[in-house]
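Researcher: Good morning. I'm working through a list of sequences from a screen, and I'd like to move beyond sequence-only analysis. For each chain I'm collecting a predicted structure so we can compare shapes side by side. This is the next one on the list. No need for commentary yet; just the structure.
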Amino acid sequence: MLKESNLCIYNLKTKLIAYIYILNIKYKNKIMKSLFKLSIITLLFFVISCTSEKENNPKYSANLEVAKSFMAAHGTEDIGAQTAMIHDDLLWQPPIYGAKQYGKSEHIEALKMYQTLFDNILYTPDNWLPGVLAETGELDGSVRTYGTWTGTHVETGKPFSLHSYHTFDFIDGKIAAGGDYFDFGGFFTSFEEVE
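Model: Good morning. Structure tokens for this chain:
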């Protein structure tokens, strides 16, 4: 008789342990499913938030093509094509220490100066980046680029490699503001003959 009750208790314990184990697995599965769902939702959130807003900015793609064309036209010394891409109300920041912004005609003269003094001009971008409004941090369709200019100084025949940063802001698909940022003084000094 004692054996039967021990067996019954043993079976009851076994069933109880099995039941607790199954509940534990189900509970863990629910937690795992919840964690999995949460991680999927989080991943989707990051994917959606990290998808480049530049793709959502209808101006960026067109403006990027204008900026790329402008830089390429500088290399082919096509001042006419560059002039057509510049807005009449251009404000440009030259790379010269202490220089103030200037307008379209001054910028065209600066471009001609570079094209006269240098041959085989080529811009190789490290990247093209969307710009933002300084006041809001929101993408505005402007374009930024870091890269390297290479070419040859006509007078000395010296090759050059110049790292630079350029900005392009647009109005109606034309370059309306921006600037060049590099060591202008050091760049031109590098072509001077050392005595």
